[in-house]
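Chapter review: from sequence to fold.
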Amino acid sequence: MKKTQLTIITLALTACFLSSCKASSTKAQGTNSSDSLTTTEAQAAQETDTLVVKMDSCNLQEGKNLDVVIRVDYPTGTDDLASNVRKILNQKMADAYLAAVNEDGSKSYKAYAGDLSNAKVVIEKYGKDNFKYLKEQIADIKKYDSRANINMCYELNLNKKAETDKYITYNCSSYAYLAGAHGSSFDQSFNIIKATGKLLTETVDTTQVKKLQPILRKGVISYLNEYNKEDPVTDNNLNEFLFIENGIIPLPAHTPFLTKDGVHFAYQQYEIGPYAMGIVEFTIPYSEIKSYLTPEAAKLIQ
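The token string follows.
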């Protein structure tokens, strides 16, 4: 393996390790530490924002071997926007159900169909279902080795990150460890259009992937070189580090999202590179990507 490859992978592994330790530390400290805003800041945000939220959580444990935590910034209002956002969050929690994720969707799982205004009931439903799934996995392993000391955990966070006069941004992040060689992380943010209460499903014109290559490659290189100052990746050797076909970087599986600075792209683990590369993410300024936005996305930044 080339020296450059070793450097990139070593530094990326360091970044992943630090991120994993941070997640574990947050979980150990309890649910209060998960809120990124202080009480004063949260109150100020609620006074100015249209969508008022309250962080609710579910934490289920069984000794030191099994732990499930779900935290959600849940809308408290009675208006249509709050109702629509609750529906979206409900579906996101259903989509993140471990059995469906780990078994390639072969296990059918329906989103909670009851009253979505009760955050505690909704969040506990998903906490208990994921807890049950992990208990079943541990039981299956112990059938073959009753002495096995197995640890499993799952953490899911849905946090409101930003709000403008036209859209709201949520972040969905998770970490799961199922007694394997390493855990797996997921991180996706998404925009909700305030006028309709619906997800912004496309931000970038999917027919323009080839024309987008120069700025996508620039973005990936900037991510890789953030931890690699001594032997930086260049456009000439970038393909050596990526799992891509014909040298074309695809759009992420999950829709890039709008931010105040530009469009943010995030490629999940294994999506375009090895596990050690982590979640490859970068922001492309609007000045560079504006001509490639969908009409719907373009309206939201005007």
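Two observations follow directly from the output. The longest strand covers residues 152-163. DSSP finds eight helices and nine strands in the chain.
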